[in-house]
Amino acid sequence: MAELIVYGIVLGSIIALGAIGLSLVYGIIRFANFAHGDLMSAGAYVALFMVTGVLSWIGVPDNTFGPISFGWRMVIAFPISMAVVAVVAILMDRILYQKLRTKGSGPVMLAMSSLGAAFIIRMIILILWGADSVFYHPGMMRMFLHLPLGIKIRPDQILILIIVALLFMLLHLFLKNTKMGKAMRATADNMELALISGIDTGRVIIWTWGIGGALAAAAGILYGIDVQLHPGMGWNFLIPLFAATILGSIGNIYGALIGGLTIGIAQQVSTAYLMPTYKLAVAFIIMILILLIRPKGIFGGSGR
Amino acid sequence: MNETNDKPLLHIEKMEVVYHNVLTAVQGISIEVRENQIVALLGTNGAGKTTTLRAVSGFLGIDDAKVTEGLIRFRGDEIQNRPPHLITQKGIVLVPEQDKVFDNLTVEENLQVSASVRKDRTSRENSYDFIFNYFAVLASVRNRLGGYLSGGERQMLSISTALLCNPLLLLVDELSLGLAPIIVEELMNLLKTIRTEQGFTVLLVEQNALGALGIADYGYVMENGRIVFDGDPNRLRSHQDIQEFYLGQGERETRKSYREVKQYRRTRRWYG
Ligand SMILES: Nc1ncnc2c1ncn2[C@@H]1O[C@H](COP(=O)(O)OP(=O)(O)O)[C@@H](O)[C@H]1O
Ligand SMILES: [Mg+2]
To answer: Which has the closest alpha carbon to A154: A1, A10, A32, A302?
Structure first.
């Protein structure tokens, strides 16, 4: 059981990264971006393209760091993929959502068009890489560390937790201390007052998509390192992402972190009692329960 | 209206505003605001005061409304139906009726996000400390979240953030709404002091006519989307109908008879 909880925390931290981005976007632009999961896939596959393609052609060595399943190639690919997906997310907004917003389309139209965007990303991945599962480093022996309480954990997983914690800290400091961070929080709080105060909400929206996209890419890569890559991986994350976002109160990044961890643990622990294929149903049931009992999430106020 | 040769800072000319293409909320009103004046726009709930301010500040679009006729001139430029950020850039700043502060930001952060727009202006650069000279109480709650402020503190913070946008024209929507009389008086006097010291112009919307006329240089009374009276504060204060209907002095006497109300309707037509 202790082991399932630890795996749940690892999965949950990945869900949390995605949910934070989803939550940020919802907080400011106020629509459910169904393409967010596929941005995770996009990040994972851009990193794959770097690791097995570009970086091998330019001769970056392929060896891995000691007990960890990746090496310099991934260290380089990781930030590049985050940047690429950030740009993809910003372009998606410019080309698609912003046009719809200026035409006065409501949140339902936007959500529908994001479904379309999700399919397009998945199709591109399918066309370029095929439908099979792949690994960043096929044939890697997966070694385990033995911790007390009979917990087995891979060094990769410890690293995943560290990376998520670092990214979260960075985001926290950004939102708390920088001008753009404060402007983002202000805009999420009250778009109209932000306009009155002369905040450049156009720039805020660009930053929001950029950060959301970059975090999605990171989540996708980390999942690829932990498990495997698959064209449907991001799509399958959609329900856990939304469950975590709603659980943590939409628009609240700290809530999204707690929500992500909760959903991750619930999913993994459920495998002790249910078939693993029911994992997604567990997230779905949690989401429905929250919507019924506490629609504003555990961190949501009752007013406004 | 006394005619002078210099152009008013803000000139609303025969403006009509329509919501959702069907509902006419403001019908052909004209208002002039001269430099360094405090002009009061008075009227009961639903008269069209907020609509007028939102027309000037450019926020009608958000409510699916439009200026369908007439003009709004600011320093000679037509600004009707322009997007809000262009209007803010020109120096027109709104203190809104509702949602006036960022609830999830601290007092200090509220000031900082507003201060950020002034980076290219030379005066008072990167400093919001002068705010605390006027509103000392804000200094003592600078780390409190906006959502936890009292009504008076919210209003002070809202005015402060507006001041940080370097307004030429400050539009204040209901300074007194929901506040205790003693705080209203303090805020009214402060607004006048700040206006004088910082040198800007104020268009003040109020249901509390008595308070507003105490600091105003000129006043307009609005009802059902029309201007029904205008004049300097003394003239407005002494006007019998205004005393009864807006200053609440009629209520001390017997209830208005139907005839009087009818009489009022008739006189109103004269002004409308
Ligand atoms: N968003 C809106 N949609 C439709 N009608 C509105 C809206 N806002 C105000 N109105 C209408 O415009 C008229 C004037 O309202 P308002 O300007 O808010 O008055 P005031 O500020 O003087 O109380 C009212 O009849 C009101 O019903
Ligand atoms: Mg109003």
So the answer is: A10
